[in-house]
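Posting this for the archive.
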Amino acid sequence: KIGWITSCLLPHHKILMLLVVILLLIPTNTLAELDLQEANVTKVEYQKLNEKEHNFDVTLFHDDDGEDGYADLWQVEQVDGLLLGIRILVHAHGTEEFTRSQIISVPSSIKIIIVRGHDQIHGFGGQVIAINLETNKQQIIDQGSEKLDFTSYKFSELSRSEEHTSELQSH
């Protein structure tokens, strides 16, 4: 009987060890690591409606309870910083992720866009998401506490090579 129990438990231990190894290999850029004083963009879903218009669903995470100001907008811009569209937020949302939508016109000549959040106290700091509209690839970028200029930024995860394919969160 003991041999049978040991043979039954051994495969389960191997599976458990494999799960532990897999979990250790998963990137750990978690919500808990974000600076919640900043209006962090944590998810972007979008759908092309026609030649120019896209419907964007943008999720922000900010500590609206922990300070006087709140996350008051998110925006879509070109790499050079030119504003394409904005979604104004009119009230605080607590300390939880929340998603709001907006239809924004994006000229067909624009290939990469930046989606960033803003809060009343700290401005445009925090996590942003860059999106290659041709490949649907997204790259999460922690720009720190200041608005990062993306004019000469190298978008490593947005390259067209197949080895970096990660078609995330696009319909």
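The two ends are 54 Å apart (CA to CA). The CA atoms of residues 137 and 167 lie 5 Å apart.
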